[in-house]
Specification:
The chain is mainly β and about 120 residues long. Helices cover about 0% and strands about 50% of the residues. The chain contains no helices and eleven strands. Strands 2, 3, 5, 6, 7 and 9 form a six-stranded antiparallel beta sheet that branches. Strands 1, 4, 8, 10 and 11 form a five-stranded antiparallel beta sheet that branches. The termini are far apart.
């Protein structure tokens, strides 16, 4: 979780920002982002990215996106399973140059997969 952050689109293509890597706390998670305020034409996309600690590069985006296209002030969430060891977020704001979004990530709910196989 972090307090509200302001992300401004610097080009018409949009602006992407990555959070720092952090270790997963379990193999599954529910991530939530709150869009606090936004300019009229701004859209926010939030994706989780993961990789194992020995992997190089920027990691792999997981599906579903936490927010595919936030166009309103609201709380958005996604349940993501089978996470690798390291996780970070990719935030993208789009719209015309100067569009902005004020948002914050809410605490993550981590949980382990349950083996519901036959126990007899």
């Amino acid at each position: 979780m972090f307090e509200a952050q302001l992300l401004i689109s610097k080009t018409t293509v949009g602006t992407k920002v990555y959070s720092p890597w952090f270790p997963r706390q379990s193999d599954n998670a529910t991530f939530q982002v709150e869009v606090v305020q936004r300019s009229d034409n701004a859209t926010l996309k939030v994706e989780a990215v993961h990789k194992n600690s020995e992997d190089t590069g920027n990691g792999t985006e997981v599906t579903p996106a936490i927010v595919a296209a936030a166009t309103a002030v609201d709380i958005y969430s996604a349940e993501i399973t089978a996470l690798k060891e390291m996780v970070r977020f990719k935030f993208t704001v789009t719209g015309t140059t100067g569009e902005w979004v004020l948002f914050r990530m809410l605490p993550t709910s981590w949980y382990a997969a349950v083996n519901a196989g036959n126990t007899s």
